[in-house]
Amino acid sequence: MRENRLRTLWKSGGAAVNGWLAIPNGFSAETMAHQGWDSLTIDLQHGVVDYQAMVGMLQAISTTDTVPVVRVPWLDPAALMKALDAGAYGVICPMVNTREEAQRLVAYTHYAPRGTRSFGPVRALLYGGADYPQEANDTIVTFAMIETAQALDNLDDILSVEGLDAVYIGPSDLSLALGCRPVFDDVDPPVAQAIDHILERAKAHGLVAGIHNGTAEGALARVAKGFQFVTVSSDARLIAAGAQQVLAKMRATAPSATPSNSSTY
C-alpha cells in the first residue's frame, strides 16, 4: 500500500506542515499540492466543498506526494467512510466531546475486527494500492478535534481510546467555548493554557497533536512547543493576502495605475 508520509514523518519526530483547502476546485487544489505541503486538508465542514468537488480535489492532490486529508462535516459514518473510500489518507472529525464519540470515530474509520467501516474502497484502491484492504487500518490517520469545554473535561478519556492517532485543535471554537475571542494565533490566556494542556496530555498518551494557525510565525511557535501537525491559513485566505499585497504595492508606487472595481481591463 502507498506510504502515508504523515506517519513516516511523525515516527522520525518531525512536524507536518498542512495546507487547508476551502475552494471547491481541482486546479486550485493541484496548484496548492505542487507547492510542497506535507499534507492538504479538504474542508467539508466550513468550506464550500461538496462530495463531488472533493473527489476531483483528491485526484488533483494525487499528482504529487502530498498526503490527502479530509475534514468531514461531523461524526457521521457515511461522511467518514465515503471520504476514505474516495482516497483520503487521513480524516479530521470535528466536535469530538466524549470517549464514546471517540470510540465511534475509530470504529467508523477501521475495518473489522477493529471497527465497523463498511467495505467499498472504490477510489482508495486506485490511490492506495491493491493491498489497501489489508493495510488500511494501519495506514489511515484518524484525528479527533478537541474544541469544546466538554472535550476538555473528558480529555484523558478521549485520548485513551485505542486506535485514535491524533487530536486537532480548533482554536476559534475552543476560544468561543471558553468565553474568549475566536482567533487562531494570538489567543487569550485561558485558551493558551487549554492548548498547552491538550498538547501535554496528547504527548502523555502517545498521540500526535495538531492545531490550526493563521500565520507561519504562529505555526512555527507551536512546532517549537511540540505540535507535529500545523495548518497554516487556507487557500482562500492566502489568495486574499497575496492580492492585498500586490494592490498595496501598486497603490504605494503608482496610485493612478491602481485597478478599480469597474469592468475595465
Radius of gyration: 19 Å
Helical proportion? 40-55%
Taken from the alpha-carbon principal axes, the silhouette is: globular
Question: What's the total number of strands?
Answer: 8
Low-pLDDT residue spans:
none
Q: Proportion of β residues?
A: 15-25%
What does this structure look like?
The structure is a single chain. The protein has helices at residues 5-11, 26-33, 51-61, 77-85, 99-108, 124-128, 132-139, 149-153, 155-159, 171-177, 189-204, 216-225, 235-253, and strands at residues 16-21, 39-43, 67-71, 90-93, 141-146, 166-169, 208-213, 229-232. The protein starts with a helix and ends in a 12-residue tail after the last helix. The longest helix is centred in the last third of the chain and has 19 residues, at 235-253. It is 45% helix and 15% strand. By secondary structure, it is of the alpha/beta class. Strands 1-2-3-4-5-6-7-8 form an eight-stranded parallel barrel, surrounded by seven helices. The protein contains 13 helices and eight strands.
